[in-house]
């Protein structure tokens, strides 16, 4: 299961497979021993095994309980009240299965034991380098009932490929880190989002045991003693570093975001990732890709994914498109308690960072957002500083942690970002601490009211932080706000490093998107070009010693 909101009990043929709590992370169960079917003769060849079918119907039942915001669990922007009356900046809740469900076959492991198998359970990729990738392969050997067995005799092989050609490989025991240098490394960035392919193979040594039998894992040993392939997984990675560092110490010690060692200005959008016909669920993979690709088409390079964890495919599109992602951790608004919310939040946080940590597009985690959720994190080790350190320990390759975007915990000056929210106009007029870079985590919220006929999702209920009369007026004010960001960016004292406009799309009755809720255009082609060119002035910036920075080359050039 990609994700089920919130508490799921899964049954197969009336028998409980397992229980999972959490609305944003994936989970799976081994169904092998619970399947029913006619007795089939033992298959001898691989072709015969592949042709084996279950000849009876198997029933899967998923029972879901989701209290939404009536519970204490993190639920992001979802509100039950929005079912009957849209809530402005909060939206209709989802419940139940909202991401993909699939069956996955893992390899058989032991000819003599039908209840045992070995496979690749996980692959951890540390790609925070300009010269090497670190890969850890996690292998699983299980028997019926979920018991762990002896995983001796296993080897993991990793091959790095460029355009299907293997350029370097390494082997190591499962669970051990492989530090693999990449010759003439190609780096990932918004302008050149280069990705290496990765092939991971799990092998058994193929040797006989001292007693003359076979090892427990894999098929019978080969006559020549060569390794037996148990499982193969394909993946990818992008080499890049993302840090906050002073561009020219000691004369300019203000921290700025740096990508691959070079200062970069990040200009992007707040993305709620809701859809009219599916709420949390996108109608198609093309719809997921559309929202990601819209960002560079408008001249921006950043998405702050807001109070939601998206399906893996969304991040796949971000990786391949070259869009940088600041990832929020969904939190609890209003009903957060220390005893109830904190354990669930910590569980979700661990699952999110582990589950999405291999994506090169994600460069920063945002732990809290506004309001009061952070206030219940009072007891060590899960106080606010402790949560920052926990995030760092879970993902040491990503050094930048935003403790609180626009909320009171930002004043604690823990984490790596001084992140303020100002509506509608961007403003962060105080110099950040020496250990943080400056960010306007939210600004904007412009809307055209009344909206043109046929574009308002909930007629007569539209809300925006600043109401304007036409798309022309909207585009002009957006350009003016971006010009203000340009001044803040180039000021060596303020050194603004990132800015996030609210928001990508309208959502229900919050009508402040750059496109309508159904993703139809809000601006004319001329107005869209005004916005794109101004965004390119922000994102094509290069740091210049003594003058803050300059726009490099032709500001109208495409970066996608």
From TrEMBL:
<dbReference type="GO" id="GO:0005975">
    <property type="term" value="P:carbohydrate metabolic process"/>
</dbReference>
<dbReference type="Pfam" id="PF00703">
    <property type="entry name" value="Glyco_hydro_2"/>
</dbReference>
<dbReference type="InterPro" id="IPR051913">
    <property type="entry name" value="GH2_Domain-Containing"/>
</dbReference>
<dbReference type="Pfam" id="PF02836">
    <property type="entry name" value="Glyco_hydro_2_C"/>
</dbReference>
<dbReference type="InterPro" id="IPR006102">
    <property type="entry name" value="Ig-like_GH2"/>
</dbReference>
<comment type="similarity">
    <text>Belongs to the glycosyl hydrolase 2 family.</text>
</comment>
<keyword id="KW-0326">Glycosidase</keyword>
<keyword id="KW-0378">Hydrolase</keyword>
<dbReference type="InterPro" id="IPR008979">
    <property type="entry name" value="Galactose-bd-like_sf"/>
</dbReference>
<dbReference type="GO" id="GO:0004553">
    <property type="term" value="F:hydrolase activity, hydrolyzing O-glycosyl compounds"/>
</dbReference>
<dbReference type="InterPro" id="IPR036156">
    <property type="entry name" value="Beta-gal/glucu_dom_sf"/>
</dbReference>
<dbReference type="InterPro" id="IPR013783">
    <property type="entry name" value="Ig-like_fold"/>
</dbReference>
<dbReference type="InterPro" id="IPR017853">
    <property type="entry name" value="GH"/>
</dbReference>
<protein>
    <recommendedName>
        <fullName>Beta-galactosidase</fullName>
    </recommendedName>
</protein>
<dbReference type="InterPro" id="IPR006103">
    <property type="entry name" value="Glyco_hydro_2_cat"/>
</dbReference>
<feature type="domain" description="Glycoside hydrolase family 2 catalytic">
    <location>
        <begin position="259"/>
        <end position="409"/>
    </location>
</feature>
<feature type="domain" description="Glycoside hydrolase family 2 immunoglobulin-like beta-sandwich">
    <location>
        <begin position="118"/>
        <end position="218"/>
    </location>
</feature>
């Amino acid at each position: 299961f990609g994700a089920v909101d919130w508490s799921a009990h899964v049954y197969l043929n009336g028998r409980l497979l397992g229980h999972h709590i959490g609305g944003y992370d994936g989970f799976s169960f081994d169904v092998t021993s619970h399947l029913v079917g006619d007795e089939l003769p033992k298959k001898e060849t691989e072709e015969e095994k592949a042709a084996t079918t279950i000849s009876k119907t198997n029933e899967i039942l998923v029972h879901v309980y989701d209290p939404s915001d009536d519970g204490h669990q993190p639920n992001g922007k979802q509100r039950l009240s929005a079912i009957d009356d849209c809530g402005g900046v909060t939206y209709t809740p989802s419940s139940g299965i909202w991401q993909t469900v699939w069956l996955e076959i893992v390899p058989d492991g032991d000819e003599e034991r039908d209840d045992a198998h070995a496979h690749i359970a996980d692959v951890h990729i540390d790609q925070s380098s300009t010269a090497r990738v670190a890969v850890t392969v996690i292998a699983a050997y299980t028997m019926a009932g979920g018991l762990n067995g002896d995983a001796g005799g296993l080897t993991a092989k990793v091959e790095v490929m460029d355009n299907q050609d293997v350029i370097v490989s390494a082997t190591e025991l499962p669970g051990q880190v492989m530090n693999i240098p990449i010759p003439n490394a190609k780096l990932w960035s918004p302008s050149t989002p280069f990705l290496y392919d990765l092939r991971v193979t799990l092998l058994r040594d193929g040797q006989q045991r001292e007693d003359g039998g076979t090892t427990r894992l894999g098929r019978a040993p080969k006559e020549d003693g060569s390794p037996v392939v148990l499982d193969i997984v394909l993946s990818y990675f992008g080499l890049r570093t993302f840090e906050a560092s002073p561009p020219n110490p000691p004369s300019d010690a203000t921290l700025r975001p740096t990508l691959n060692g070079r200062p970069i200005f990040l200009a992007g959008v707040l993305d709620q990732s809701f859809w009219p016909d599916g709420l949390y669920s996108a109608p198609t993979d093309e719809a997921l890709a559309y929202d990601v690709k819209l960002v560079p088409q408008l001249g921006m390079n950043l998405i702050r994914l807001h109070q939601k964890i998206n399906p893996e495919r969304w991040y796949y599109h971000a990786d391949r498109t070259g869009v940088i992602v600041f990832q929020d951790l969904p939190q609890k608004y209003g009903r957060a308690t220390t005893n109830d919310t904190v354990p669930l939040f910590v569980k979700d946080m661990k699952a999110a960072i582990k589950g999405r940590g291999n994506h090169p597009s994600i460069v920063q985690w945002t732990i809290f957002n506004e309001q009061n959720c952070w206030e219940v994190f009072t007891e060590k080790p899960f106080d606010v500083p402790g949560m920052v350190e926990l995030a760092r320990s879970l993902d040491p390759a990503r050094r930048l942690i935003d403790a609180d975007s626009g909320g009171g915990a930002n004043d604690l000056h823990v984490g790596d970002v001084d992140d303020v929210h100002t509506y509608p106009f961007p403003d962060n007029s105080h110099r950040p601490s020496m250990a943080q870079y400056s960010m306007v985590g939210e600004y904007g919220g412009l809307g055209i009211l009344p909206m043109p006929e046929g574009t308002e999702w909930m007629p007569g209920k539209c809300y925006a932080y600043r109401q304007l009369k036409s798309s022309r007026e909207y585009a002009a004010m957006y350009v003016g706000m971006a010009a203000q960001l340009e001044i803040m960016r180039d000021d060596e004292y303020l050194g603004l490093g990132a800015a996030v406009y609210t928001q990508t799309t309208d959502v229900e009755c919050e009508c402040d998107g750059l496109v309508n809720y159904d993703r139809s255009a809000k601006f004319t082609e001329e107005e869209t070009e005004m916005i794109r060119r101004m965004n390119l002035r922000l994102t094509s910036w290069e740091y210049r010693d003594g003058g803050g920075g300059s726009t490099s080359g032709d500001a109208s050039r495409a970066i996608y």
